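Q: Joint fold for the lines below.
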Amino acid sequence: MARVVVDVMPKQAILDPQGRAVAGALERLGFGGIADVRQGKRFELEVDGELTEERLAELRRAAETLLANTVIEDFTVRVEHVTTQA
Amino acid sequence: MARVVVDVMPKQAILDPQGRAVAGALERLGFGGIADVRQGKRFELEVDGELTEERLAELRRAAETLLANTVIEDFTVRVEHVTTQA
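A: Joint structure:
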């Protein structure tokens, strides 16, 4: 059992209206000094069994296929923790 | 200048319909062995100036006020990297 985290963020070259809205709201609420905000998605996948290299490659394909729109988004896949069984 | 990342995830006790939908879609696409998926948000804040303890506490308040709905979501605030100026 392992937890794999997939972070999906809008590409730097892409306008991020959600992030802009958050930055504006922070400013209006009195939280100044924040130059930029970008908003993306975080997926936590609980993966059964052993996390082999092949398994991780498959999860990367899954992220590319379903979780990120790679035309406008970048994604990273990382292992957060592995639970070993006794 | 520093990048601060705020991760916002649905609380464990809360049903996460987006995550369920993703888990179902992964299964249908042939990506098996994924026991659970939870979907949340990731915010990247580019913060001006020096990142003092007070500044970080202020950003935590900002996350609590604007970025997370603490009734149904948990959040974490962490510093991803700091750019020091020459």
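Q: Anything notable?
A: Chain A has a mean pLDDT of 94. Residues 5 and 78 of chain A are 5 Å apart (CA to CA).
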